[in-house]
Amino acid sequence: MNLSQLTPGERGTIVSFTDLEMSVKLMEMGCLPGEIVEVERFAPLGDPIAIRVAGYQLCLRKNEASVIIIS
Amino acid sequence: MAADLKIALVGNPNTGKSTLFNLLTGLNQKIGNFPGITVDKKTGFCKIGDHKTAEVVDLPGTYSLYPKSKDESIVFQILADRENRSHPDLIVLVADATNLRRNLLLYTQVADLQIPVILALNMTDMAKKEGLAIDIDQLSKNLGVQVVAISARNNIGLKELKDAIANAPTIPTQEPGTDIQVLAPEAIAAAGQLIQTTNPYFALQVLHQHSELDIYTPEQHQQLNQIAAEHNFESSKIQTAETVARYRYLGTILNGIITDTGAQKKFIMSDRIDKVLTHKVWGFAIFLLILLFVFNAIFSWSAYPMDMIEEGFARLTDLGHEHLPEGMLTDLLLDGVVAGLGGIVIFIPQIAILFALISIMEDTGYMARVTFMMDRIMRKFGLSGKSVVPMIGSLACAVPSIMSARNIENWKDRIITIMVAPLVSCSARLPVYTLLISLIIPDEKVLGFISLQALTLMGMYLISIIAAVLVAFVMKFLIKAKEKSYFIMEMPVYQKPRWNNVLLTMYEKSKTFVFEAGKVIIAISIVLWVMASYGPSDRFEKIDQKYEKIELQQDSVAISTLERDRSAEKLENSYVGILGQTIEPAIRPLGFDWKIGIALITSFAAREAFVGTMATIYSVDSADEEATTIRNKLKGATDANTGLPLFTFATGFSLMLFYAFAMQCMSTVAIVYRETKSWKWPMIQLVYMTALAYFASLIAYQLLR
Q: Where is the Ferrous iron transporter FeoA-like domain (chain A) (predicted)?
C-alpha cells in the first residue's frame, strides 16, 4: 500500500520508497522509514495532498506520495 | 567598511533566518550579486563585542547541501570555495526549535565541511509554549559547538548570540558525526587527492555536484567524472545512504534532549484556518477576493504618489529648462535622462505596494496555501503551483516577478513561467490602456453602476492572463523536460506578518527595480532621444529655414504654436520618424499609421514611452495648452490617407491588443537573459510575443473595421 491511497485522517508508517531519486528528496524533508505519516487534507481539486510527518506539515503531489510505501 | 569577521547565516526555509539577519544588521545591509551568478546576495554589517565588526551574509534557505533549486545551489558553492569573497569564517546555523531533527540534518552536513559553526535555535519561545523542552547544554555538549536559544521574532537571545559569535573559536570544534568514508571510500580518496583536500565530506560533495561548481577547470571536471565512473559512484544511492546515516546519528544525539509534553498543539489553530482557506468553495472564493483586493490596492493606493512623482519630474524638467543654459547637453540631460528616470521612478509606488502585499501573504503562510490549491490547475498548463506568485506579480511588473520564479525547483516549470510572465498585463500597460479606452469606449454605465470603461480595462487584463495560460499550454509540449516535475513543499503554520520585514521588502524590491531596470531604461531613453532629436542634416536645415521665415512674418503670440509645429515636423524627419515611415507598410493592415509606428518603435524599449511619444507627435493644432489634452489631440487626429478619424474602435482595440502581447520592454529581455544565462530564451520570447501581438492585432482590426 502506498501513501497516495490514504484518505484524510488516515495514517500509516513509512516502510520504503519505490523511486530512488525521489526518496532522497523525501528523506531530506523528514520522510524516513519508520516515521508515522497522517494525511491531513487534500487540496480543493484532490491533488496535491497535505500530510503530517516528523512534527510538521508537508505537501506533495499524489504522484510523489505514490512512491512512499506504507503499512 | 572593513570587517574583522565574515559570518554566513545558513538554515532551512521558514526558520526565521531572514528575520535574524534583519535583526543583526538593521538597515545596514545591501543586496548585490554573487559574482558570476544571479542569486541575490544579502550582506550587512553588525557590531560584535566592543570593537569588532562582522560582515553577515544571508544565504538562501535550503533543506540540504544538495541543491534542488537555483537559489539553493549557491549555499554549497560559497561554503566550498575558500577563495570566494563571501566564504565565511564562521557559520551561524539557524534551526527551528519546533522541528529540530529535520533542521539538524543540514547542520550535520555543514558541520562536516569543517568550518567553525554556532547553532542558533530559533523560535524557542514557541517551542516552550507547545510544551517542547530542549536541553540546550546537553545538545551543545553532544554536538561540540555553542548552542544559543533565540527568538528572532521577539528579539530574544540576540545578545547571547552576539557573545557566542565574539567567543567563537577560529578552528572547528564540532564532534565528528557520521562516518563519511564508508559511503564511497575509493572515490573519495581519489577525488580528495585530485582537488587536494583532506576533508572526506568535501570530496564527496564535489563528486556529487562538481558540474554545478565553477571553481574547477574543464580537465578537473573530466577527471572527476572519470573517478565517478571508475569507482561506480551512484549519486542517488550514495545520497540516500548518507541521509539515512545522518538521521541515525541525529537519533543518538537528540536522545533524551527533547521532552515533548504538549505535542501537536501548534497545529490546532492552523488547522482551523486551513479548513476555511483551503476549502473547496470558500478557498477559491477568498483567494479571488484577495486578488481583487491586491489588484485594487495596486491601482487606487498608488494613484496619489504616482501623480506626485509625475508632477515632481515635470517641475524638475521645467526648472532645469529655466535655469540651465540652453543647448544640446541640457536637452539630453532633461529630455533624455530625467525623462527616462521619471519613467522608472513612477512605478515605485505600484511595485512597493505589490511587494508589500506579496510579502504579507508569504509571511503569514497564505502563499503556501495558494500554491497548494492552484497546483492542480497550473500543472495542466505546464506550470506549477509555485508559478502563481510570479504570475500575480507580473500584474505590477514582470522584472521582479521573473526573478521570483527562482523558487521553482523544476527547470521546465521555471522556464515556462518566465516565458509567459511578461504576457500578463503589467502596470506599464495601464497608461496605454487608459488612454486608448477613453478614446474608443463611451463613458457609460452598464446596469446603472458598472463603468463600461472599467469593464473594458478588466477585459484587457483577463485577455492577457488567458493568453499567458494558453501559451504555457503550448510550450508544455514544445519544451523538453530535463527532469521530472515534482512538488514537495513545507506548509508553514500561520503567523502574524512581521511588519519590519514587509517594510524592508518594499524598500529592497523598489531599490532593485530602480537600479536593475533603471540602467537599461536610461540608456535606451538616451538613444531614443538622440534618434528623435536628430535626422539627416539637410532635412533639419530645411525645416529650420522654413520656420525662421514664417517666424519673421508672424507676431510673437503664435510663436509657441510655431515651435510645436516645428518640433512635430522635425520628429517626422528625424531618424525615428524615418523609421516609422519605413515600417508603415507592415503595420497598415493592423490599422496603424506611421505616427503610431513611431510610438511602437519608441515603446520597444519600454511601453510606457507610448503616451509621451503620442503626445509629442500629435502636438499640432491648438495653441491653448489647457484645453488640449493628449486625449483630445488623438481624438482630433485624422488618417492622412482617408481623412477619417484615425482612432476608430478597430484601430484602438487593435493597438491595445498589440500592447497587451508585444514584448516592448528591454528590462524584461535583460532580466530573462540574466536569469536563463543565454540569449536563446529572451530571443524566443521576443519573437513569439511580437508574432502573437502582430497577428492578434491583424485579426482584430480586419474583423472590426
A: 1-71
